[in-house]
């Protein structure tokens, strides 16, 4: 896509969002824009109601929250290209890193500004199978068995897909294997993917509605939504080891300082760690991060052995470079890059 076309698209988005903001501004003292990834719509719809009520009671000020949702990487690039978000809420740190590296919109150490690497919620990567688990799929290596078809969104475009890749790879490392064995397992699993959808919701449609594949790999937080929408024809499998998918957040410094909305934007994010914010996250099937909330909602989330991207892969920047950049390990697995 040409730079000029990108600018036209961003300007169109800005126009739509500006119109929405104008409606909000008619009654609000302050309007914030939260640019987020695709599957957080329900969570932030509920959270925004709670925060605006809290802010009104605390300060007397009325704040309106506008939302923009889409694929995480595309959303981050839109902000770099000019979409004026006050805050960004993603499902992986490298999408927010992009704002520091390419846009100089935030400081490089943005993740140190809030607890838990600035991640108020998390999820884990799980396997969804047909009711009764007819193919007896219990762990990552079962997805590599001959005759198994597994639906996974494309790791080049989807955070969900990248977490799937890293979960399978990391499971080998955590059980004593090396990079050679990990790459071999991931190669076999991805050889069984019939179609690479662009995102997690599209992959869900492929599996649950179009009845393609024996298994779907997705976030734990998506499973209740899938069961509610498509019925109880599926069940979830928790692998022996899986990756902790942290959901980082940040204010967009250059935007909030120009708009003079830093106070409200920072409060909006900090409230995610409040008792109410953590409870709303848990009720939307996202794992809370505070000890109090984890204890309160312990029965809602099965115990599972997890590792982080930092722990096994040295952080998102290193993982992106070694596994998902053009010509890196994922391209090699697909035969698209240099071997």
Overview of this structure, please?
This protein has 16 helices and 11 strands. The relative contact order is 0.15. It has 2 domains: 143 residues, D-Maltodextrin-Binding Protein, domain 2; 153 residues, D-Maltodextrin-Binding Protein, domain 2 (3-Layer(aba) Sandwich), CATH 3.40.190.10. α2 runs antiparallel to α12, α3 packs parallel to α4 and α6 crosses α7. By secondary structure, the protein is of the alpha/beta class. The strands form 2 sheets. Strands 4, 5, 6, 7, 8, 10 and 11 form a 7-stranded mixed sheet that branches. β1, α2 and β2 form a beta-alpha-beta unit.
Topology overview:
Elements: H1 3-25, E1 30-37, H2 41-59, E2 63-70, H3 72-80, E3 87-89, H4 93-101, H5 115-118, E4 121-130, E5 150-151, H6 159-174, H7 179-190, H8 200-209, E6 215-219, H9 223-230, E7 234-237, E8 241-247, E9 249-251, H10 253-259, H11 262-270, H12 275-283, E10 287-288, H13 291-296, E11 305-307, H14 309-313, H15 316-324, H16 329-333
Parallel strand pairs: 1-2, 1-3, 5-6, 8-11
Antiparallel strand pairs: 3-9, 4-6, 4-7, 4-8, 4-10
Helix pairs in contact: 2-12, 3-4, 6-7
